[in-house]
Amino acid sequence: MPTIVRAGSSAEFLALVPHLLEYTPRSSLAVITFAAGRSVGALRVDLPDPSHAAGVDSVASTVIGMACKVSQTDAIAAVVYTDTRLRHAETLPHRALVEALMSRADICGLHVTHALVVGANGWDSYLAPSATGPQPLAEIAAPSELPPMPAVDGDQSAAAALPVIGPTVGKAVGRLLVDAEHLVSRSPAGRRLPIHRRTAAAALLDDLSDPPALFEAAIASESPLDAPCLAAVAFCLQRPALRDVALMQWVGDLATGDAIYRAQFAFADGGSFPEDLARPMWGEGAKPESTRLHRALTACRQVAAATPLAGRAGPLAACAWLAWATGRSTHAAAYADHAREIDPDHGLADIVATLVAHARLPEWVFERESATSPTETGSSRGCRDR
């Protein structure tokens, strides 16, 4: 059941915005969408150069266009985060952007509840500026009835940082991946492996005999993945065909993964790939279960962090796509850029970077959560027909 927190003032509202975004924005425009008085979405974009009017207008149009796509949205609140020091009401930074935003909101029938700015030395309102100058940042405090919430650390860039993986786990993952490659290629080095390493690598390859089962196990709980699972998932995410099985299964369910896996074999033999199975890759289709996508992103972030740098592009590209699928364009761009630094020709990373550059998000991002997941196929997640 959703928690309802009422912000009684602009300062209280500003305290809630980082929790809605899961980070504290910097040099950003944040827009919160509302339906019948309740927040239903949050988005962030980089602040445009205020000297370029065309860029300001473009950002305002794009943001309001995205806000209008959120189901049942009837109001928005806008917050500018800047490192600039605030002075007088007449000189509040990025006023042209906020005015362009409010103008387009009015055209679309959206009420603007707040238009605020947070600067280096205080905060203020574009709608009702303080007569005494910017208000102290210390006034930004959450409502007293706010339930305990996780701490919000860092800005939009820090939030995309990979988790820290212990050196022991990282070393074990790297060794397993190298040894598994030797066994797959039947190289002389593989035959010379010590028995304990050969046994561990063979066990990893055994897990790969049923990739959908592996992918389902990877998101079965919120517990950190162990080294064998990290290595097995990394092995798959480095291979586009298996990576796509994983992504589409996490969007759907185990049965979807089985169907994609079979379709990949048929396609390799010259058959056509079913269009309905490929649609989610482009953000089309029913809204996925958010829990599955978030767990998948968490797992892939662990995998990327544990994979040696030379082989990390595939896991990072998977992180990029999953971040995009959950509406985290800023994070998606960061993961895609990192992947392309490692492999400039990485196909999925290029695709995600292009989607983000064109402000394209999956259609399901703009849908509100329902009590019953639309991805259900009528069978249990644990049931399979293979």
Explain what you see.
It is a single chain. The chain is 47% helix and 9% strand. It has helices at residues 10-21, 53-69, 95-107, 167-185, 188-191, 195-207, 211-218, 227-237, 240-251, 254-268, 275-278, 290-306, 313-325, 329-342, 347-357; strands at residues 28-35, 38-46, 75-81, 111-118, 123-125. It is α+β, with helices and mostly antiparallel strands and 386 residues long. It has 15 helices and five strands. The chain has two domains: 10-131, Cytidine Deaminase, domain 2, CATH 3.40.140; 167-366, no CATH class. α7 runs antiparallel to α10, α8 (227-237) crosses α12 (290-306) and α9 runs antiparallel to α10 (254-268). Strands 2-1-3-4-5 form a five-stranded mixed beta sheet, sandwiched between helices. The chain is elongated.
Secondary structure topology:
Layout: H1 10-21, E1 28-35, E2 38-46, H2 53-69, E3 75-81, H3 95-107, E4 111-118, E5 123-125, H4 167-185, H5 188-191, H6 195-207, H7 211-218, H8 227-237, H9 240-251, H10 254-268, H11 275-278, H12 290-306, H13 313-325, H14 329-342, H15 347-357
Parallel strand pairs: 3-4
Antiparallel strand pairs: 1-2, 1-3, 4-5
